């Protein structure tokens, strides 16, 4: 590798240090200076994730119990600086640029203009957004929604930053209007978890608490990159490493944050230049090879168990748990016996010996936790992957006891809470019954659209309106060509947002841009400043209260905006929307009436660290059809496109260290050695050689055509191939630029999650390199 990378390629180097450390502090200083000027509001940053401050909009990792000291996190600080910026996108800015001109700006430039300050409406005659008063905007939106042929012609998108209060009012409004069309960011993210885990263990959420990490012997990290996306988790992994727990990483790429970490909280590490190793074992399967790895580990456990029993050694499998709590085990065993090691090796890209070694570490751990992220869910077999993780845990009774369990790392800071309070296109009858009993209004019972179905319905002209509570839907979705076209066909698009992004520029007949308060800002209503509540990845619900002066007097809170839209759209509504926005305690009282798990909501959320929602599986109560935990067998080992398309590589689209989803803070990806650019593709040196390419060569990345009759139209041109420690047959490029290569039809049929992490592609030397 060193040889192949000797060539000097601009902006491509090697990062030799650990994650964290001084580099992280410098990056924060730069972000604050760039967004907030010098010296301003540093104190405010210190209030992130403090009991009386605001919840960090960065990620959904929980706060430690002993949250007295400021928990430093580089990317949390960047997220806050990006929201608390002093830059402003004013009506003057919109007057100076047509929407067509704005569309030519990069995603970074659009958001870097700063916070939106005034409600705006699109004016087709001048191709500009022009200022509008709140009241006029609302009455036009209400009128347009009422003019739709039927309620299911409207789509209500939610991105996962919305608070429980905003999300609950939003689903109430849309359901009173008459639809269950709730596409949300979770449809692109952990939907495979929401579908797969309930089938296996009866809950759709993680079963562990932060304390479990203090008691486990082994932590497995499947397909997630905490050094960038959940940096506060590194403190937890560091503590586990220091007390001798095994940390096993399963990831096609070498990620620095999973190798070594210097804690900015540790004066010794910082001053002496020391770091703590994280992974005790780093396994690099092929992209999409996880099901094969997990099935291999289960097969190894089974074989070790048989040997142990034959030799009268302690068993490897928890038979008492399997007999007492589960179904389907015999089917799993039969399937594993039928699966041959050479097939497992080919599908995983790992040797039998290496998989057996990983299985042995798992078998030696009295209690193990499996953490996972997008590397598991964003595949056509995402739901099956989640089932396999559950199977492997169940084989050793690793669910529902101290130090053991499953830990999906949720994405947006309140995506889990939004789901809990009713943002779902497939509501249960029990939930709708309670909604009807609480509000005395009939609720729609038809299944609604998820994100992919929303785009399809918009393209087909069946859905005519999109309301977006945050996010950047058509940019986050696959295939921008189709999704952009879908947006332009709408009669009405309404964006509730903090910053300008490309979705807002894909205007329909009528488009509105409604600027809202962010989490860092004081939310003043009739009864005084309000708190909102959020739920983290471990089902802890806690309060968040903004502390900054709003970016503009014209901003409104998300609950206020939703209520105003509801009033304008539903003149006959039985809900007292004004009373709810005047005092958010009243919204929480309603949430409690619909969801009994929120018992004493207002009282309990005023505790400094909030409260944990009940989780049946973590108490070994199984809310599945069988009333037991289910072993769910997966046929085969997953897709291997390389076999059908010789020479194809599997592409995963990933996040850099300097972005938050479609928000591009900057162009560096420090831990991967990339500076000031994003137009790269990470390739294994042997694959480069086999393709006759060299490190630094310009290449075209062409998606293997899976849409009949449209050959070769999905090409990402002129990107630089970077030799990287990535498994053979696998390549990686940045999201959202590479979304161009992902077909809208390429999703997990079980959950609808787009297959952003297994995109078969060809790499070719660039036909017309622009050096
Ligand atoms: N700073 C920052 N924080 C964030 C976000 C952000 O963009 N920026 N996004 C938030 C959101 S919404 C989410 S969902 C999370 C995302 O957090 P992650 O799940 O960490 O997201 P990704 O960067 O998409 O990819 C994760 C990892 O999957 C690996 N991977 C790719 N393909 C495979 C595979 O087939 N198998 C395995 N085992 N691994 C694979 C990649 O190498 C990468 O290390 O982070 C949240 N937090
Ligand atoms: N190729 C590829 N595509 C992917 C992924 C991938 O790994 N690869 N990941 C997928 C995943 S996991 C996710 S979650 C989606 C993300 O999809 P989204 O959640 O739709 O996208 P974001 O980029 O997080 O949204 C950014 C915008 O949110 C708005 N915003 C920020 N804060 C607030 C707020 O407090 N309130 C409101 N109302 N608006 C706010 C700003 O205007 C900002 O421009 O993308 C998915 N797309
Ligand atoms: Mo996500």
TrEMBL record:
GO terms for cellular component: membrane; oxidoreductase complex. Its cofactor is Mo-bis(molybdopterin guanine dinucleotide); [4Fe-4S] cluster. Residues 115-495 form the Molybdopterin oxidoreductase domain. Keywords: 4Fe-4S, Iron, Iron-sulfur, Metal-binding, Molybdenum, Oxidoreductase. Pfam families: Molybdopterin, Molydop_binding. SUPFAM superfamilies: ADC-like (SSF50692), Formate dehydrogenase/DMSO reductase, domains 1-3 (SSF53706). Residues 649-760 form the Molybdopterin dinucleotide-binding domain. One of its GO terms (molecular function) is molybdopterin cofactor binding. InterPro entries: Asp_de-COase-like_dom_sf, MopB_CT_YdeP, MoPterin_dinucl-bd_dom, Mopterin_OxRdtase, Mopterin_OxRdtse_a_bac, Prok_molybdopt-oxidoreductase, YdeP_MopB. One of its GO terms (biological process) is cellular respiration. Gene3D superfamilies: 2.40.40.20, 3.40.50.740, Dimethylsulfoxide Reductase, domain 2 (3.40.228.10). Belongs to the prokaryotic molybdopterin-containing oxidoreductase family. This is Molybdopterin-dependent oxidoreductase alpha subunit.
């Amino acid at each position: 590798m060193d040889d192949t990378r000797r060539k000097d390629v601009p902006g491509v180097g090697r990062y030799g240090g650990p994650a964290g450390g001084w580099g992280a502090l410098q990056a924060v200083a730069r972000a604050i200076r760039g967004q907030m000027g010098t010296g301003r509001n540093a104190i405010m940053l210190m209030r992130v994730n403090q009991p009386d401050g605001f919840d960090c909009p960065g990620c959904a990792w929980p706060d430690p119990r002993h949250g007295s000291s400021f928990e430093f996190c580089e990317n949390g600080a960047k997220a806050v600086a990006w929201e608390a910026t002093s830059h402003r996108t004013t009506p003057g800015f919109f007057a100076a640029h047509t929407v067509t001109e704005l569309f030519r700006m990069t995603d970074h430039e659009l958001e870097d203009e700063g916070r939106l300050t005034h409600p705006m409406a699109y004016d087709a005659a001048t191709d500009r957004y022009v200022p509008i008063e709140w009241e006029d905007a609302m009455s036009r939106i209400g009128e347009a929604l009422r003019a739709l042929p039927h309620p299911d012609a409207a789509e209500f998108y939610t991105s996962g930053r919305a608070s429980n209060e905003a999300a609950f009012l939003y689903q109430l409004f849309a359901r009173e209007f008459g639809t269950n069309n709730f596409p949300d960011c979770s449809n692109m993210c952990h939907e495979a978890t929401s579908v797969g885990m309930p089938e296996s263990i009866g809950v759709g959420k993680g079963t562990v608490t932060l304390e479990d990490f203090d008691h486990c012997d082994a932590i497995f990290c499947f397909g997630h990159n905490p050094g960038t996306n959940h940096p506060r988790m590194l403190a937890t992994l560091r503590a586990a490493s220091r007390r001798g727990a095994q940390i096993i990483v399963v990831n096609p790429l070498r990620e620095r944050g999973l190798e070594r970490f210097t804690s900015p909280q540790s004066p010794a590490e910082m001053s002496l230049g020391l770091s703590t190793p994280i992974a005790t074992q780093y396994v690099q399967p092929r992209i999409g090879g996880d099901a094969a790895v997990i099935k291999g580990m289960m097969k190894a456990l089974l074989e070790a168990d048989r040997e142990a029993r034959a030799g009268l050694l302690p068993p490897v499998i928890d038979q008492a748990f399997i007999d007492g709590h589960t179904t389907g085990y015999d089917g799993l065993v039969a399937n594993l016996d039928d699966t041959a090691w050479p097939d497992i090796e080919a599908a995983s890209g790992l040797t039998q010996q290496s998989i057996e070694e990983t299985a042995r570490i798992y078998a030696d751990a009295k209690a193990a936790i499996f953490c996972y992220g997008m590397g598991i869910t964003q595949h056509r077999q995402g739901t099956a992957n989640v089932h396999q993780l559950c199977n492997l845990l169940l084989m050793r009774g690793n669910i529902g006891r101290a130090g053991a369990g499953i830990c999906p790392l949720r994405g947006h800071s309140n995506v889990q809470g939004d789901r809990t309070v009713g943002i779902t296109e497939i509501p249960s009858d029990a939930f709708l019954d309670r909604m009807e009993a609480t509000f005395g209004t009939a609720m729609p019972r038809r299944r609604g659209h998820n994100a992919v179905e929303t785009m399809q319905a918009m393209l087909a002209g069946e859905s005519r309106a999109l309301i977006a509570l945050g996010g950047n839907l058509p940019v986050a979705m696959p295939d921008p060509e189709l999704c952009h076209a879908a947006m332009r066909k709408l009669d009405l698009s309404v964006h509730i947002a903090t910053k300008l992004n490309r979705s807002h520029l894909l205007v329909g007949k009528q488009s509105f841009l409604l600027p809202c308060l962010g989490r860092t800002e004081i939310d003043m209503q009739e009864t005084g400043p309000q708190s909102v509540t959020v739920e983290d990845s471990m089902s802890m619900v806690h309060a968040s209260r903004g502390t900054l002066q709003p970016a503009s007097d014209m901003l409104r809170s998300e609950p206020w905006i939703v209520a105003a839209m509801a009033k304008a759209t539903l003149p006959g509504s039985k809900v007292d929307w004004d009373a709810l926005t005047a005092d958010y305690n009243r919204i929480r009282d309603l949430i409690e009436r619909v969801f009994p798990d929120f018992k004493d909501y207002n009282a309990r959320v005023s505790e400094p660290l909030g409260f944990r929602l009940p989780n049946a599986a973590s108490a070994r109560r199984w809310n599945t059809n069988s009333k037991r935990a289910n072993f769910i067998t997966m046929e085969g080992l997953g897709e291997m496109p390389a076999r059908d398309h010789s020479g194809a590589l599997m592409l995963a689209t990933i996040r850099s260290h300097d972005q938050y989803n479609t928000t591009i803070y900057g162009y560096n990806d420090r831990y991967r050695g990339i500076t000031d650019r994003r137009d790269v593709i990470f390739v294994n040196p042997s694959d480069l050689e086999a393709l006759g390419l060299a490190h630094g060569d310009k290449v075209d990345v062409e998606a293997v055509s899976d849409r009949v009759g449209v050959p070769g139209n999905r090409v990402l041109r002129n990107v630089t191939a970077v030799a990287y420690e990535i498994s053979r047959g696998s390549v990686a490029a940045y999201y959202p630029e590479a979304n161009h290569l992902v077909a809208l039809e390429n999703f997990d049929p079980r959950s609808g999650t787009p297959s952003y992490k297994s995109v078969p592609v060809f790499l070719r030397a660039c036909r017309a390199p622009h050096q």
